[in-house]
Amino acid sequence: MKGVFPCYKNQFSVGVGSSSSYTPIAQMESYSVSIDNGTEEWKPYEQEGWTDRMKTAQSITITASGKRCVGDPGNDHIASLFMASGQDAECPFQWTFPDGAVLTMEKAVINVTNLNAGDSTGVGPLEFEVLSKGKPKFTEAEPTA
Fold first, then answer.
1. What is the pTM of this model?
2. CA 87-93-94 angle, 5° bins
3. Nearest to 93, CA basis, from 80, 82, 77
4. CA distance 12 to 28
């Protein structure tokens, strides 16, 4: 892939059940990604007061917003986690980039933040966060000829 692209070329999917396949989550309108980094800082004498740094931690949070779509396997699975806690709130999650690269979180923590409620004339929402747990697997896109 070369050049700019529309954001819908990113694809987000969830692992449902015991199969190793991933299912898209229907009716999602917006995804935002936050990459949080931890750094440690110190000021060694030989740097004459200048700060030295090292990146020592990372995490990814994906925030999703859309509509509740009863009957869609991906949407139903995310919605079913609204009361889950502990390991029951974890599931596989995958982000496929427009160029074909894939980020896989084997045990993402799903935090449902809004479900079904809104204005009387509105369409029921589904909003959630996907929080990385441990290091995700990143697979580069296949080179194009």
1. 0.88
2. 160
3. 77
4. 9
SS (H, E, C) the chain: CCCCCCHHHCEEEEECCCCCCEEECCCEEEEEEEEEEEEEEECCHHHCCCCEEEEEEEEEEEEEEEECCCCCHHHHHHHHCCCCCHHHHEEEEEEECCCCCEEEEEEEEEEEEEECCCCCCCCCEEEEEEECCCCCEEECCCCCC
108: left (phi over 0), alpha (psi -120 to 50) or beta: beta
Residue 80: CB atoms within 10 Å: 14
* 145 residues of the chain, pLDDT tens digit each: 688 999 999 999 999 876 678 999 999 999 999 999 999 999 999 999 999 999 999 999 999 999 999 999 999 999 999 999 999 999 999 999 999 999 999 999 999 999 999 899 999 999 999 999 999 999 999 887 6
Tell me, rounded to whole angstroms, the distance of Cα 62 from its chain centroid: 4
| Rounded-to-integer distance, Cα 21 and Cα 15, Å | 6
